[in-house]
Each structure stands twice: as C-alpha cells, then as structure tokens.
Design brief:
Elements: H1 25-42, H2 61-118, H3 121-126, H4 130-134, H5 136-144, H6 154-164, H7 166-175, H8 177-194, H9 210-225, H10 238-257, H11 261-264, H12 269-275, H13 285-301, H14 312-322, H15 324-344, H16 349-380
C-alpha cells in the first residue's frame, strides 16, 4: 500500500533488477479495481458484489491487493535505494508504516463515530464496534498495539507490519531473491502445519494472519525484482496457461454451486465438504492457487500497452490505485454508510445498485481531487 514516492537525484549505483521504464499503469489499475471490489464485497446483501471475483472462484480482491502492494513497494523502495541508499529506504519505510498506523487509528475512531451516529445496534455488532463503544479505553489501548480492529480494517494492520519490515526484506531480496521467497513459502507452510498466528483481541483471530498473507506480498516484491531476469519457460508457457484456465473453470463451478442451488446438486457432497469453507484468515492454498491462475491469465490477456487503460473506467481505477491508502479508508466508511442506507431506507435492488455506483463514484471523485492537489504544487515549482 504505497502510493507515490518523489524521485530525487541519484546518489548511488543503479540496481539493474529495478530499473524504471516508466510507470506501469496496469499496477495502478489492478489496485484501483481491487479497492472497488473490496468496497462492493463488504456491503452486505449487495447485488454489486456479483461484479467482483468473490462469486466466481476461490480468491477475491484481497489477494490482488496484497500482491500488487508488494509489487509497488519493490518499485518505490527500490527506487529510493538507488537514489538515497539504505538510510533513505529505512526512513521511508518507517514513515510509511507510521502513516498507515495513524490512518488505522483514525479510521477506527471514524467507524465508531459513524456507527454511534447511525444508532444501529445491528451495525455495531456486525462491525465489531460494539466493544469499542461500550469500553473505549481498553479497546483503544488494544487498537494501539494492533490487537483490535473494526471489521474491514484488518488489512491495514498487516500493512503496518509489512512496511515496517520491508527494508530488511528488500535487502534479502536483492541478495538472494529465490532463497527469500523460499523462506516466505516455508513460513506459510509452517503456519498451516502448526497454526501459528499473531495475538489478537477480543477473539484471538486475525482476519488476515500476517504470517500467512506475507507470502503474497513477498511474492509481489520478488516478481518485480526478478522482472529483468530471464523467466523459467514454464512460467509463460502455454501449458501453464491451459492449467490455469482449467483450474479457474473448476473453481468457477464450485464457487457458483455454493450460491446457486441447482448447481449444488451437481457437486459430490464429499468434494463440497472438503472445499467449503476455505480458510481466508490463513490464505487457504486453494485461494492462493486461484489467485496465481488469475494472475497467469491476466498476464496473457493484458499487455503493458493495453488500449483499455485509456478508457474512462480504467482511468478512474488508475486514479484510485495511485491514492490507495485514503481511498481504502474512504471505502470502509462508505461500506458502513451504504449498509445504513440499505437498513434504514430500502434494501431493494435499486438501492443496492445506487449505493454501489455512488460509492465507486465517490472514490473516483476523491482520488481525482487528491491527484489535483498533489500535482498543482509540483507544477508551480
């Protein structure tokens, strides 16, 4: 979750694996679309969620967001390393981690205030803010040490930790990228073997266990650092593409069977029991494989110079992706506001469509405003 970094004059040798060939707008577009999907998915009983990945496979926008954030961190902090050395990298990672930490605490307070003003007891229970409203002192103390989070804000806690530790991660990736990725994968395996996690409160469970989800983040950073080196042929082979498509079709049928009753009868009960529910907290291996299959297909279908990136919709997604932290926070608040509208005004199809479109429009408008504010000072200078 790293938005923009300025480009000061180079003071150290260039890093061949991270040479900048212009901003890849696909990265911003993917992150922006992921932010839209996260908003749509988090609004309960929302028809707009049928536009997202969640209903058509094992993974959802969270995997995309985590992977792309690893990519952008490798680009941004790699550029900082080339320009300012390790002191610059450490300074920037600490500052960015602090920014996300402050945003998380402010968002926690904003969620509680919004729920209190809405006066909806059901929303307080479902958003995990009831305990904050009843015992604010102890709950805020837990929030300060990343043990308490309202619903839908969990990913920010993970990013606080990942940015805080990115300087040593980058050091390892630059010197032994494959070994570092292997260590990340080993940690992921150990989490599933022994149930390792990080303390949380009050239920002791992270919605995104950082010990497991770090794999996607590290994978994104590794992929970008390795981008200028020859890929193994199997990564881009047609065989890999065919296997990815077959797995996507399999997951599509299974996921639809969970939501469409006539399809449920076509799936053997033993298979259905084995696959459902998938463990999102620890990044179930089937979710991980589904995301990798989606990534393979996207790499084949969307080249760097894809003309679709110039369309108005993609330009809106790019703007949101370039301002990911404030837009994510806005999306969480819009989720609560949309849920209140569905509860108090109408839960009908028209209202579901209205809150979905209005939420995405608000995110694009806010991102456009943030971009104009950040561009004008640079134009004057």
């Amino acid at each position: 979750m790293h938005d923009r970094i300025t480009n000061p004059k180079f003071v150290v040798g260039e890093l061949p694996e991270l040479k900048d060939h212009g901003r890849d707008l696909r990265i911003d577009a993917c992150r922006g679309i992921a932010l839209w999907f996260i908003f749509l998915d988090h609004v309960p009983n929302n028809i707009g969620a049928w536009l997202t990945l969640r209903n058509y496979g094992f993974s959802d926008a969270a995997e995309v967001f985590m992977f792309v954030s690893g990519v952008t961190c490798a680009l941004a902090y790699g550029r900082a390393w080339r320009c300012e050395g390790w002191a610059g990298v450490i300074s920037r990672t600490l500052r960015r981690s602090w920014d996300i930490y402050v945003a998380l605490l402010l968002l926690t307070l904003a969620c509680a205030i919004l729920v209190h003003l809405a006066g909806t007891g059901r929303l307080a229970d479902e958003s995990n803010t009831r305990i904050l409203l009843d015992d604010p002192g102890a709950t805020l103390a837990r929030a300060a040490i990343l043990q308490y989070r309202p619903v839908n804000t969990d990913v920010l806690s993970v990013f606080v930790l990942l940015h805080l530790l990115f300087a040593p991660l980058l050091w390892l990736l630059l010197r032994a990228p494959n070994v570092t990725l292997g260590a990340s994968l080993a940690l992921y395996v150990l989490v599933h073997a022994f149930g390792w996690t990080v303390p949380a409160w009050p239920n002791g469970r992270w919605a995104f266990n950082p010990l497991a989800w770090q794999l996607l983040f590290v994978l994104g950073a590794w992929w970008m650092i390795e981008d200028k080196r020859p890929r193994p042929q199997w990564v881009t082979s047609r065989t890999t593409l065919v296997l990815a498509v077959l797995y996507l079709l399999f997951s599509l049928i299974i996921a639809l069977s969970w939501r469409i009753k006539p399809l449920e009868a076509l799936i053997p009960q033993a298979l259905a029991n084995l696959l459902h529910p998938l463990d999102k907290s620890n990044l179930d291996p089937l979710r991980l494989l589904h995301f990798l299959a989606v990534a393979v297909l996207a790499a084949w279908l969307v080249p760097r110079n894809w003309r679709g990136l110039t369309t108005p919709v993609m330009r809106g997604a790019i703007l949101c992706g370039q301002n990911s932290l404030p837009i994510f926070c806005l999306g969480v608040l819009l989720t609560f506001a949309s849920y209140v509208a569905l509860l108090d005004i109408s839960g009908g199809l028209a209202m579901q469509m209205a809150v979905s479109l209005a939420g995405i429009a608000a995110m694009i408008a806010t991102a456009t405003l943030l971009n104009s504010i950040s561009i004008k000072p640079r134009q004057r200078s």
